[in-house]
């Protein structure tokens, strides 16, 4: 076996290719990756072909079965290697991935040696996609590519689809071309909104203090300068100040529903556990869709912001018909679940959440059960939301519908409040 890490696509091509090259070098056969059969002297060709076929069979075993479907036709190491490189080594996409990792790297919970190791790994990946060169022209090209990628990394979420189109283009645009394209988009108009519901926070007063209206009145939604999201200002940003310790419950749950949800979902809060289930509304539920490549909604009222651009894609509906998206924007199916780059498609009668996109952009995990589904932050383990199964579909609530919440103190906190000795003494 060449490597335990099988090739699954462009996301791990760099590490896979480095492992393959190292293995071939260790076996003394690195020439098979760069030499065609026709370049081998005829007297040595029979033996060379025999060895190459054996090596190619090992290469086959180093890729995911789904990837192998595209590569099985290539039966020499040279053809297999170059085809994989052509398919999965998009220089700009790889540079974007590496630069994003460099920009966002933080020590956080890592120990120092792990953090330093991650920095060293990023340095090697950067040098792979941006190799050192003494040619002045190549240096200028590399600098242009790097600053183009930095420009795309820091774009606001509503321009994510434009970023994807640039990264996926067959030819690499120049930095000036990207600037010109973005400036053209910035001149497009933004659609007005009359949405009066503040759906950005999940806070309700306890019964003893009275209810709280979500009405903010008409006008521009507030903007947070810390997280760059709409619906609140920096002095009320939960990412900056932390989430509130408790939320009141609005609709009671059965004991069975509560037990199922709390046993399956890990809630990262100190002192109490909070569980939120979803409920449908007149605006229609948000459906978790494994087949959707983008978030889609046909209801403009569900957007907190929306814009039109000249680069909106064509959407294929469930009945096979095609329609052009009319806008792209931000929506909040749940207060703790912001969806960026949602395509506004009036012809679509459903509100669809792309499972692949939400797990990638929010670094979340989704667990399905027979009657409900949980969404969790992979880094903190915090529960983002819980949805219900209805008629074979798993759906979340709309922003206009209050979440069904119940709050209870953690067993250890109750134990301490009752004056019992610490469990660590037993």
Flag low-confidence runs: 189-220, 243-255, 260-283, 398-409
- From the alpha carbons, calculate the radius of gyration and give it in angstroms: 26 Å
Class derived from helix and strand content: alpha+beta
Report the principal-axis shape: globular
Helix content: 25-40%
- Termini, distance in Å? 50 Å
Largest sheet geometry: 6 strands, mixed
* Total count of strands: 14
pLDDT averaged over residues: 72
Q: Trace the largest sheet across and list its strands.
A: 9-2-13-12-11-10
Q: How is the quaternary structure best described?
A: single chain
Q: Bin the strand percentage.
A: 15-25%
Tally of alpha and pi helices: 13
SSE string, helix = H, strand = E?
HHHHHHHHHHHEEEEEEEEEHEEEEEH
Brief rundown of the structure:
The chain has 426 residues and is an alpha+beta fold. It has 13 helices and 14 strands. Helix 5 (91-104) crosses helix 7.
């Amino acid at each position: 076996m060449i490597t335990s890490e099988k090739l699954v696509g462009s996301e791990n091509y760099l590490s896979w290719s480095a492992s393959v090259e190292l293995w071939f070098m260790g076996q003394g056969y690195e020439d098979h990756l760069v030499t065609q059969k026709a370049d081998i002297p005829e007297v040595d060709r029979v033996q060379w072909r025999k060895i190459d076929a054996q090596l190619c069979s090992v290469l086959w075993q180093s890729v995911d079965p789904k990837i192998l479907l595209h590569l099985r036709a290539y039966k020499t190491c040279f053809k297999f290697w170059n085809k994989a490189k052509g398919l999965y080594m998009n220089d700009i996409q790889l540079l974007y991935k590496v630069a994003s990792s460099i920009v966002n790297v933080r020590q956080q919970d890592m120990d120092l040696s792990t953090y330093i190791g991650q920095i060293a790994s990023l340095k090697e990946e950067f040098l792979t996609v941006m190799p050192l060169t003494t040619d002045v022209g190549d240096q200028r090209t590399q600098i242009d590519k790097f600053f183009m990628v930095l420009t795309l990394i820091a774009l606001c979420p509503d321009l994510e689809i434009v970023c994807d189109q640039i990264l996926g283009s067959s030819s690499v645009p120049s930095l000036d071309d990207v600037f010109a394209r973005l400036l053209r988009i910035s001149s497009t108009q933004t659609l007005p909104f009359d949405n009066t519901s503040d759906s950005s926070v999940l806070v309700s007063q306890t019964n003893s203090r009275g209810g709280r209206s979500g009405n903010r009145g008409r006008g521009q939604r507030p903007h947070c300068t810390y997280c760059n999201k709409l619906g609140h200002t920096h002095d009320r940003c939960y990412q900056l100040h932390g989430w509130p310790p408790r939320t009141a419950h609005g609709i009671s749950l059965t004991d069975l529903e509560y037990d199922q949800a709390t046993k399956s979902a890990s809630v990262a809060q100190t002192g109490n556990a909070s569980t939120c289930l979803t409920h449908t509304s007149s605006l229609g539920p948000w459906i978790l869709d494994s087949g959707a490549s983008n978030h889609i909604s046909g209801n403009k009222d569900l957007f907190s912001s929306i814009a039109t651009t000249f680069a909106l894609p064509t959407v294929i509906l469930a009945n096979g018909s095609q329609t052009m998206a009319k806008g792209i924007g931000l929506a909040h199916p749940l207060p703790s679940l912001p969806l960026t780059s949602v395509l506004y498609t009036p012809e679509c009668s459903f509100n669809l959440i792309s499972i692949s996109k939400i797990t990638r952009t929010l670094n979340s995990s989704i667990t399905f059960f027979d009657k409900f589904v949980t969404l969790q932050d992979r880094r903190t383990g915090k529960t983002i939301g819980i949805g219900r199964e209805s008629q074979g579909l798993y759906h979340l609530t709309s922003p206009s519908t209050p979440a069904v919440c119940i709050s209870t103190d953690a067993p250890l906190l109750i134990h301490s409040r009752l004056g019992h000795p610490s469990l660590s003494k037993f």
